[in-house]
Amino acid sequence: MVTIGKISDFEIDFIAKKHKQKIYIQVTYSLSNDETINREFRPLLKINDNYPKYVISTDKFDFSQEGVIHQNLIDFLVNGLR
After folding, report:
1. Taking Cα atoms as reference points, which of 8, 77, 82 lies closest to residue 44?
2. Contact residues for 29 (Cβ-Cβ < 8 A; gap 6+)
3. Where do the domains of the chain lie?
4. What are the pLDDT digits (tens) for 51-79?
5. pTM, whole model, 2 decimals?
6. In whole angstroms, what is the distance from residue 6 CA to residue 29 CA?
7. Which end of the chain lies in a sparser environment, N or C, as judged by fewer CB atoms within 10 Å?
8. How far apart are CA 68 and CA 28, in angstroms?
9. Which residues pair with residue 12 across a beta bridge?
10. Would strands 68-72 and 53-57 be described as parallel, antiparallel, or unpaired?
11. What is the DSSP letter of 33?
């Protein structure tokens, strides 16, 4: 099951649940500036569980931080989530 989530005033693009497993996914075209990076990572950083958290974009530079994994869109489409 895939749903949209919300924590405080922040939206989470996708929450995917299967049995007792869960992953959180934010999607953006580009993490081109600090405002966009903060907008995409902030909701995931506020979640206090240990399920995987991802930000997917077209950027090739790895912006992963504080346990939130950044993944390039093409890499995701070819190889799936890492």
Report:
1. 8
2. 57, 58
3. 2-79
4. 999 999 999 999 999 999 999 999 999 99
5. 0.93
6. 20
7. N
8. 14
9. 5
10. parallel
11. S
